[in-house]
């Protein structure tokens, strides 16, 4: 089973690829206020993958990989919905909160989106990771400091950081994750999970519907009973037809050890039980096991092509290295 690539790693690779191919600030991808989003709606997504310079790209990619390592495991399969809803929401918030901003690009909004969602998911989980919570609180403090002072923390890029994008991403992540019902978010209250109670019984793995275990047990029991009756029937007949001697090692049996004498089906078909016993032979348990082992090895050889199937002629060698030797000996004589 192949493991799925983390979303954060995929986004980081795409962002690096975009920068290497299109260079800094690609005009076709960035958010440009002069171009209505209704006309080029893809910019609400592509703007996050564009960057202004190598330092901008390096900071965003490093931050994305870090928060992915911290929070993507707890977010699990919800990353797709989180990104699809969060990316355009961040762009919309930036346009609303920054009316004088001419253009925007970068992954920093996505980084803070994942931190906010990760904080909410970690807080709702039964076992809270202290490191994940402390990191998210530190990010929240950084965002608050940037918004109050207007100065960037740990950032020196060609374009000035958009603090509102960081704050919007963080808050949107919290809202999107908190708005999800607990069961959808993967947090199930054991008291509410009826599938875990003994009274509900087992459930189908795919449909979740209850399985009628009583009916299933009855079917299995009937099948076992029929098999035992069939085996007892042909064993009793075979013991009447044949001497109590193993057909391979010639070991003789009495009533005291008769349980060690078994009925072997020559064609390996336990359903083929002719009344005359032509498909049976009595074997001790050891010889019986050996017969079945040889049969399994034969099947494996057939599957591997090492043995020709009955009726299929293999290649025959026609070359005789001693051909004409008799004539030569006669001449020498």
Automatic annotation (TrEMBL):
GO cellular component term of the entry, any: membrane
InterPro entries (alphabetical): HNH, HNH_nuc, Peptidase_S54_rhomboid_dom, Rhom-like_SP_proteobac, Rhomboid-like_sf
Gene3D superfamilies xref list: Rhomboid-like
Region Disordered: start-end pairs: 191-214
Biological process (GO), any one: proteolysis
This protein's record includes keyword Nucleotide-binding: no
Keyword Isomerase in record: no
Pfam families: HNH (PF01844), Rhomboid (PF01694)
Bias (Polar residues): 191-201
GO molecular function: endonuclease activity; nucleic acid binding; serine-type endopeptidase activity; zinc ion binding
Membrane topology (UniProt): Multi-pass membrane protein
Regions crossing the membrane: 78-95, 101-121
Start and end residues of each HNH nuclease domain: 234-289
Keyword field: Hydrolase, Membrane, Nuclease, Protease, Transmembrane, Transmembrane helix
Location of the protein in the cell: Membrane
UniProt family annotation: Belongs to the HNH nuclease family.
Xref: NCBIfam families: PRK11295.1 (NF008448), rhom_GG_sort (TIGR03902)
Listed PANTHER family: HNH NUCLEASE YAJD-RELATED (PTHR41286:SF1)
Protein name per Swiss-Prot or TrEMBL: Putative HNH nuclease YajD
């Amino acid at each position: 089973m192949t493991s799925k690539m983390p979303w954060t790693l995929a986004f980081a690779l795409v962002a690096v690829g975009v920068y290497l191919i299109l260079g800094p600030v690609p005009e076709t991808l960035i958010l440009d206020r002069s171009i209505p989003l209704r006309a080029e709606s893809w910019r609400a997504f592509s703007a996050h993958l564009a960057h202004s310079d190598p330092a901008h790209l390096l900071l965003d990619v490093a931050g994305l990989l870090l928060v992915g390592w911290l929070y993507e495991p707890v977010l699990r399969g919800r990353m797709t919905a989180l990104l699809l809803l969060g990316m355009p929401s961040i762009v919309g918030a930036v346009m609303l909160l920054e009316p004088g901003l001419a253009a925007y690009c970068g992954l920093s909004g996505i980084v803070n989106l994942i931190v906010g969602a990760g904080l909410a998911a970690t807080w709702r989980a039964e076992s809270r990771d202290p490191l994940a919570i402390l990191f998210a609180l530190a990010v929240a403090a950084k965002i608050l400091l940037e918004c109050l002072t207007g100065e960037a923390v740990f950032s020196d890029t060609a374009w000035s950081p958009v603090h509102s994008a960081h704050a919007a991403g963080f808050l949107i992540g919290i809202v999107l994750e908190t708005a999800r019902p607990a069961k959808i978010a993967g947090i199930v209250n054991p008291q509410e999970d009826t599938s875990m109670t003994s009274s509900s019984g087992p459930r189908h793995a795919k449909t979740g519907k209850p399985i009628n275990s009583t009916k299933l047990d009855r079917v299995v029991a009937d099948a076992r009973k029929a098999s035992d009756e069939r085996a007892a029937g042909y064993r009793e007949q075979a013991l009447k037809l044949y001497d109590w001697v193993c057909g391979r090692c010639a070991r003789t049996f009495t009533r005291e050890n008769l349980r060690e004498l078994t009925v072997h089906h020559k064609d390996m078909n336990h359903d083929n039980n002719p009344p005359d016993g032509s498909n049976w032979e009595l074997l001790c348990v050891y010889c019986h096991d050996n017969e079945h082992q040889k049969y399994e090895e034969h099947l494996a050889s057939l599957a591997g092509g090492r043995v020709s199937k009955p009726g299929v002629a293999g290649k025959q060698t026609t070359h005789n290295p001693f051909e004409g030797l008799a004539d030569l000996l006669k001449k020498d004589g």
